[in-house]
Write a structure and sequence with these properties.
The complex is a heterodimer.
Chain A: E1 18-22, E2 27-32, E3 35-39, H1 41-48, H2 56-66, H3 71-87
Antiparallel strand pairs in A: 1-2, 2-3
Helix pairs in contact in A: 2-3
Chain B: E1 7-10
Classes of the chains: A alpha+beta, B mainly beta.
Amino acid sequence: MSEALTLTDVPRLPRGVRLRFDEVRGAHVLLAPERAFDLDAVAAEVLGLVDGTRSVSAIVDALAAKFDEDRAVIEGDVVAMLDDLAKKRVLDR
Amino acid sequence: KWAKPSVQEMCVG
């Protein structure tokens, strides 16, 4: 669990952690027991692809098909974000 | 447009 996230990992939200659209904020939030995280639109796009079946690499593929950005840039940002969430224990892999 | 995703923990008290 302490190793860094890899492209072959298949991330999923642990029991009790939910991605929600907050009508008041007009933005997505990640809700965990006793904790909550504000997400910007890009972070919400990434987490929207976390379904327990897609690998990190597949998530990057989907985002690279949607956004006009170099795949390597997307990969670096996605791995850093998901790794951080895994370290905060709001993402399983 | 793609930008580095932002995740900010909120203070829940």
